[in-house]
Amino acid sequence: MSKTRLLALVLIMILICGLLGACGTAGEKEPADTPAETPSTEEPAGEEKQAAEEPEPDIDISEFVEISNYVLGDPPANDMVDKMLEQLNPILKEKINAHMRVEWIEWADYLTKYNLLLASGQEIDMIHASSTWLDFWPNVQKGSFLALDDLIPKYAPKTWAEIPQEDWEQCKYQGKIYCFPENSYTQYVNHGIFYRGDWLKEFGMEPVKNFEEMGEYFKKVKEVYGPQGVIPFDAHNGMSLWEGYIISNTDYVDVRVNTGRHKVLWGKSFEEPFELVAPVFEDLFVEYAKMMKDWDEAGVWRKDVLNFEGDTRANLRAGQSASDQHHSNTYRYLRVEMDELIPGSDLQMFAWCDTRGNLVAEPITHGATAIGRTSKHPERTVMLYELFRQDEEIYRLINYGIEGVSYVINEEGKLDRPEGFDSARDGFSINWWGGRVDKFELRQAWEWEPIWDIWAEYDKIVKKPFPYGRFVLDRTPIEAELSAISEVTNQYGPMIDFGKVDDPEKEVEDYRNKLKAAGFDKVMHEIGNQLAAYKEQIGEWPPASN
Amino acid sequence: MRAATSTSVPVRKNTSYVSLFRKDFSKNWMLFLMCVPAILFFLLFSYIPMPGVYLAFVRYNYADGIFKSPFIGLENFRFLWLSGDLWRITRNTLLYNIAFILLGNTVQITVAVLMNELRSQWFRKTSQTLMFLPFFISYVLVGLFVYNFLSFEYGTLNSILRSLGREPVETYSNPAIWKYVIVLTHIWKNTGYGSIVYFAAIMGLDPEMYEAAEIDGASAWQRIRYITLPCLRPTFVILLLFALGGILKGNFDLFYNLVGSNTRLYPTTDIIETFVFRSMIVSFNFSSAAAVGFYQSIFGFLLVMTVNWIVRKIEPDYALF
Amino acid sequence: MAIRKRGTRIRIDTSTAVLNGFSYIFLGFFALACLLPFLLMIAGSFTDEKAIIKYGFRLWPPEFSTFAYELVFQNPDLVIGSYRVTILITLGGTAVGLFLIAMCGYALQRPDFMMRNHIAFYIYFTTLFSGGLVPFYLLMVKFLKLKDNYLAVVLPALMSPWLIILMRNFMKSIPHSITESAKIDGANDFHIFIRLILPLSVPALATVGLFLALGYWNEWYLSLLFLSPNMKYRPLQLFLYNLITRADFIRNSAASSNIPPQDIPMESMKMATAVVATGPVVLFYPFVQRYFIRGIVIGAVKG
Q1: Please, what is the Cα angle at C128 between C125 and C133, to 5 degrees?
Q2: Residue B124's Cα: distance from chain center in Å?
């Protein structure tokens, strides 16, 4: 045996010893799911809910502290955030004897950085959280955040009183509150397709209400404007109409279990959300696959749609595309823009829910604020949140920036641009999506006013609350299966979504077989069981109040 | 050339290593000292974090840290084979890397050798500089250009075909073509960089050998065959051993930016790292990533130990260790 | 080339002539293929965005525009600051790293140094196994406390196994007799390395130094991990990388900020940022090239 190989052996032994040593200690620890507990506070838990006007006398704010606030996004190139902080911090000093520091988690590779930040145990006070796009629940399970039950009633009494109990319930894991929800902020992000109203009229068609009509519009565009190079629906790989097709054609409700490109598990209906269905295994999916194949052959999108990474919206703006796909909050601004760019374009939106009113509220933890397990000043951080949410002056600073520079309030009481506004110089954004409230929100001069009528209609049909608001999936028994299923949907999804298959029925069949092989039945069974248990836990459904 | 080869290393099987090292140390302590910065460097940045691979075997809990999180055996590896793609991605990764190593080095050596034959200083310098350019173009842009060239409706290739009265081709629906596109792109991007190593090795040669060869009337081919190429062998072996260690790794950018999420092309273009990337988007999990890293490492380690052992048998001087 | 004195030779045999012709053609074409995308990039950076959407990338801008550059240099202070940071990191890291690599490389090729293979293996082993992202991050942030410190970008890239072994191999071609005779004269190893070996290793130092410098110049992932956007100046590549992604970001999430979406020339901006980021190195490269000259090693030995 050569010396080198001996050395190799030694190095590997060291490695293994490290591992074994670690195993030894691991055995002694209690099992997983041990989120951090609130550091012991003198106050007894479960304090009575009350809205105090003044800070209670026994709150000690004598020590001046600095609070870090982690937000997602790229810091703006201008200095408006700093300017805002210059105004905000003296107020904070006076009110809670604290200073706020903004820390940015930039977009590039944000998921890695967000999770590394939490994993590293760096000191974090306030941090943005989201159950829909920032892995809030898995991170709670990993012990990233602090339980807030003892802190909120005492240090954020108004917020504690303002947020109804059932909303607090949606922030709980194993009976403890882990975040502040964005529970009273109207924001619809229901998806649909935007299309040209002027062309629709020209074709003598009625407003689009379902996928068949959508297809007719596309084909008509291809026929009339195709020769000029207009693409009926310039799409890119990231768009999938499958979800829209389900919502438009069934009463199914998204359980929001992430299984990659296609969500394979849905609730049967709002009334029976705990009954699981799997639309990919229904005839619906075959119909969909055939329709997409038909659209592809009709030239609805580019032949290379799977690889196209250009700006489809820019093409809509340029009149090169006759449709675009996104949610109604985008429509709110895009419509105004299009009216300016292509006067008379009369951009319309076919929302998936237009067909049969299948629309369910967003989870209120879509935007949320949490406090890091490592925070040294959780009390003061909670007080800071209270100010953000209850003090209108501070609310405007943190949301809109400096009045007269970044915004003005016009005579209609709307948010408007000041005279000589230059967005590069004066624009303000801090990506504070963790606690906006309708009571302080201002209408915007640059939004499409009628959106509020549409949303008011939505308010009537939307069934509140979000049925799975308190459901926290325990992924551990099916982690590998979920990954594998995602892999399958990610692979078959794009081909089927854009009709890039030779035989839709066969491809769907392959897809289903692959899902089965990846452990679909086990996942459905496990999640079904967890939902059944959840149903027991929440009692009556739908809530009587509705 | 190599005046003193390994003759001065008296390896006697029976001598104890400790005394041997002690002797060596007392004689060459300064050489050892010269290696100390490197030794400390790798200790700090590589060996100290290394036990962290244990992450691949736990259900990671931030509050408890890596080593106190519950041990779950091979659970984190399970997603690799459940989807049924493990074989496909391993095979693709392997085959591509073999193609990159063999073809890549062949082209690099060819370029370096031909570069050496050039008479015109100006031409040599210019072409060398130009070949270096692709190295600076990020794969994001490379992906854009490739799309621009191959896209069905507006691509340059199809414009040419149409103007010649030929049928346009649907490149993005044809998995078979992509093997070549990817390998070509890789070669195009890395030749300038890679050939520098070979070129530098040729530059280190004794010019007298060439002069002697010319006096002996050797043809250009003989010169290359008997002087230039043999001197590149150690460099090639080293490159090879480094490449083999990472044979299941790397090139994420190349594949991701050229193929993206066009799953129709996956049968020929999906590799381990693009696979992992997709899994990470769905459920961000450090442990799964660590598991894959471990799999790649073990594979590379076994391969390298084998190849190095073979090299050692044939030409001990070329072996890495 | 000075030593071979090609200009003075008269007789060229046919095989050499054929090979020469082939070399010119092959390398010429290859070089052109490498130049083409670069030209596309430059042309793209000067093309009006709408023209790119309409015609794709062309070798000559159909509609000339400098808007992309105006946006990139919207904040000239920032670009210059980023340049400075990158240059300092590159120079500092390359100088220190190159010296350490050369020192180790020299020791590792000394045939009389018995531990050399063990140390080489110790170094090489790190390319096979690594702790992965999380342990590395913890090391850097928690133990070395290098968050928001430029050293976080410099230190981990100082050396690499590949460059050390490469250096070792280059130095193998320096005859061991030089070392031996110097030892007989009573010089110690470090002195031999500094006085005799380094001057003989210029091509090797140029090559390895080039690779090191390019690594530093192109580095962005370490910056992304360890230099938070709170730092005013961050390395160029990251700054530009962010410019590219931020354009994406504005398009995608204009609806969630309070700023109405603007027309950002995304494609031409990508090109312009790339030109700004690569330009200086491309210009710098010919200076390094000078050192790739045959004969320095041996010639100096004789002299």
Answers
A1: 115
A2: 26
Structural domains counted in chain C: 1
In a domain, C51, yes or no: no
State the average pLDDT over residues C128-156: 92
On the question of pLDDT at A182 being above 50, the answer is: yes
- Residue B72 is which amino acid? I
Measured between alpha carbons, how far is A201 from C5 in angstroms, rounded to an integer?
81
Residue C139 has its nearest CB partner, among B41, B48, B196, at B48
Nearest-CA distance B244 → chain A (Å): 17
Whether chain A has a CB inside 8 Å of the CB on C274: the answer is no
- pLDDT of C289 over the 80 cut: no
Res A3 pLDDT > 50? yes
Nearest chain C Cα distance for residue A186, angstroms: 12
Write out the two tokens for B208.
């007298």
Environment class of residue C184 by beta-carbon count within 10 Å: exposed (0-12), middle (13-18) or buried (19+)? exposed
Shortest alpha-carbon distance between residue A272 and chain C (Å): 32
Q: Which of the two residues, C126 and C302, has the higher pLDDT score?
A: C126
The answer to whether the beta carbons of residues B312 and B319 sit under 8 Å apart is: yes
What ipTM goes with this model?
0.84
C161 falls within a domain = yes
Ranking A190-204, A257-271, B117-131, B168-182 by mean pLDDT, the lowest is B117-131
Q: In this complex, do B37 and C134 lie within 8 Å of one another by their Cβ atoms?
A: no
By residue range, what is the domain housing residue B88? 83-140+169-318
B165-191 per-position pLDDT tens digit: 888 888 888 899 999 999 999 999 999
In a domain, C130, yes or no: yes
Within-domain flag for B65:
no
Q: Looking at the partner chain, which of C37, C100, C204 has a beta carbon nearest the beta carbon of B200?
A: C204
Give kind and range of the element (H or E) at residue A286: helix A283-298
Indicate if the pLDDT at residue A48 is higher than 60.
no
Summarize the confidence of residues B260-276 as an average pLDDT. 88
Which tokens sit at C15? Answer: 């095989």
Residues in C touching A424 (Cβ below 8 Å): 74
pLDDT tens-digit map of B29-85: 999 999 999 999 999 999 999 999 999 999 998 888 889 999 998 888 988 888 788
Q: Classify residue B53: in a domain, yes or no.
A: no
Average pLDDT, chain B: 85
Q: What is the CATH number of the domain that holds C276?
A: 1.10.3720.10
Mark which residues 187-206 of A lie under 8 Å from B by CB. none
The domain over range A65-186+364-392 is classified in CATH as 3.40.190.10: yes
Using a cut of 0.90, tell me whether the model's pTM lies above it.
no
Is residue C282, in this structure, part of any structural domain at all?
yes
Token pair belonging to A407: 């915004």
Which CATH number is correct for A191-259+282-354, 3.60.15.10, 2.30.40.10, 3.40.190.10, 3.40.50.2000?
A: 3.40.190.10
Query: What is the CATH number for B246?
Result: 1.10.3720.10
Q: Which chains touch A (3 or more CB pairs under 8 A)?
A: B, C
**C264 vs C272: CA distance, rounded Å:** 13
Residues B124-181: pLDDT tens digits? 888 888 898 888 877 877 887 888 888 887 788 888 888 898 888 888 888 999 999 9
Nearest to C242 among A4, A74, A121 (CB): A74
Question: Structural domain of residue C179, as residue ranges?
Answer: 67-302
CA distance A117 to A130: 15
Please say whether the beta carbons of A197 and A346 come within 8 A.
yes
